From TrEMBL:
Function of the molecule: Bifunctional enzyme that catalyzes the enolization of 2,3-diketo-5-methylthiopentyl-1-phosphate (DK-MTP-1-P) into the intermediate 2-hydroxy-3-keto-5-methylthiopentenyl-1-phosphate (HK-MTPenyl-1-P), which is then dephosphorylated to form the acireductone 1,2-dihydroxy-3-keto-5-methylthiopentene (DHK-MTPene).
EC number: 3.1.3.77
Molecular function terms from GO: 2,3-diketo-5-methylthiopentyl-1-phosphate enolase activity; 2-hydroxy-3-keto-5-methylthiopentenyl-1-phosphate phosphatase activity; acireductone synthase activity; magnesium ion binding
PANTHER family assigned: ENOLASE-PHOSPHATASE E1 (PTHR20371:SF1)
Pathway(s) annotated for this protein in UniProt: Amino-acid biosynthesis; L-methionine biosynthesis via salvage pathway; L-methionine from S-methyl-5-thio-alpha-D-ribose 1-phosphate: step 4/6; Amino-acid biosynthesis; L-methionine biosynthesis via salvage pathway; L-methionine from S-methyl-5-thio-alpha-D-ribose 1-phosphate: step 3/6
Keywords: Amino-acid biosynthesis, Hydrolase, Magnesium, Metal-binding, Methionine biosynthesis
Top-level EC class as recorded in UniProt: hydrolase
Stated name of the protein: Enolase-phosphatase E1
One Pfam family from the record: Hydrolase
Gene3D superfamilies (UniProt xref): 1.10.720.60, HAD superfamily/HAD-like
Species of origin: Leptospira perdikensis
Domain of life: Bacteria
Length: 243
């Protein structure tokens, strides 16, 4: 097989899940209220947030209703209508739910940027990643990133890693603007962006459903089984413990 592109997931693949969930998410949650005081969303983003909030009203998930009801107590209470004032608390709720929501990812990326630049955050990347990237680059294989985090957040992880600045080893970055990571069309879109047949792209992930979507689009697939990763359902994909 003539692989010309590596498409790499981040969480659970090149970086530990614990770094994302125990460092990045709590940092964003801690700073999000203060950050949003001076942040201006576009009208398009406001509409996107409003629609997401109203979808949660319809779903009436108990924690959501408890947080945003008029009296903050029960499922039958009247819900608050959407307003800018509820957004900070709503984003905290979305972080708790690990919701893959574009406007939230955008804000998280900017908060993390401040943390990285101040030195409060240093990203953890698995030690074997650097040698793998160097080897692939030396062999003429291009490295790309596809993660649910915003492109800005992806770049920051590799720029401020404990292994040094790794940005020179990557050619391009993709987030959910190309589509969801469990959707076949997303991988077809990336292949089009790369101007490459799908069978010349190898996708690395820790999630079987993502692997299935990439495989159905014609990509070669490898699943990473890193320490702390979530156990996966039975599958026939090759499994690596390291690069």
């Amino acid at each position: 097989m003539n692989i010309k592109h590596n498409l790499l997931d981040i969480e659970g693949t090149t970086a530990p899940i614990a770094f994302v969930h125990q460092i990045l998410f709590p940092y964003a949650k801690k700073h999000i209220v203060g950050f949003l005081k001076n942040y201006q969303f576009t009208e398009v983003k406001w509409e996107e947030i409003r629609l997401e909030f109203e979808k949660d009203i319809v779903l009436r998930e108990e924690k959501f209703v408890s947080r945003f009801s008029a009296n903050g107590s029960n499922l039958k209470s009247e819900l608050l209508s959407f307003s800018p004032e509820v957004v900070p608390s709503y984003f905290e709720y979305l972080i708790e739910k690990d919701r893959k929501f574009g406007p939230l990812k955008e804000v998280q990326g900017k908060i993390w940027k401040q943390g990285y630049e101040s030195g409060e955050i240093k990203s953890t990347v698995y030690p074997d990643v650097l040698e793998f990237l160097k080897k692939m680059q030396a062999e003429g294989i291009q490295n790309h990133v596809y993660s649910s985090g915003s492109v800005e957040a992806q770049i920051l992880i590799y720029q401020y890693s404990e292994l040094g600045d790794l940005r020179n080893y990557f050619v391009s970055y993709y987030d959910t603007a190309v589509g969801g990571k469990r959707d076949k069309q997303s991988y077809e879109n990336i292949a089009i962006e790369l101007k490459s047949p799908s069978n010349q792209i190898r996708f690395f992930t820790d999630i079987v459903e993502e692997a299935e979507a990439a495989s159905s689009a014609g990509m070669d697939v490898v699943i990473l089984n890193r320490p702390g990763n979530i156990p996966q359902k039975p599958h026939s994909f090759p499994v690596w413990d390291h690069f």
